Amino acid sequence: MLAISYRGDTFNADGSPSSLGSDDDNAIDVRAAAAYLHGIGAKSVSAIGASLGGDAVGDAEARSPSGTFDKMIFLGSEGGDAPQKLRGRKLFIVARDDASASGPRLPGISKHYEQAPQPKQLIVLNGSAHAQFLFDTGEGPQLIREILKFLKSN
User: Fold this and answer.
1) Distance CA 86, CA 80 (A)
2) Domain 9-152 class?
3) Model's pTM, two decimal places?
4) Exposure class string for 73-86: b at 16+ Cβ within 10 A, else e
5) How many Å apart are CA 38 and CA 53, to the nearest integer?
6) pLDDT in tens, 24-43
């Protein structure tokens, strides 16, 4: 397992994360991490990206000529700017009432899900928690079960 801290990551005064890096930088960082894992002998690389991290995973995959990930999980994320270019297995997970300042996230995530090629799956959980904050809700146990089931599948 490898956790990524993007270049330019900082924290706001309230402790919430903030990223000063660009979307391109984040995708490059994700691709570099996957290349490192492949370089040390990993035969299969999967990624879980929450919110901005999911966009970085999707953008890294879409920009790779031969594909980077065997499996991708997007938590509260549309999965980047080019869902039609995502290879491998894809799992989109979002809370039904998750919303940003610009409105509900489910419509945008559903649109990107529809544009992504098979194999893919969309799971809509109850509640309004965003991305990784789903783990701290009553939906947390189901979220963990769904992620583990997806990662174990062929």
Assistant:
1) 9
2) alpha beta
3) 0.89
4) bbbbbbbbeebebb
5) 20
6) 888 989 999 999 999 999 99
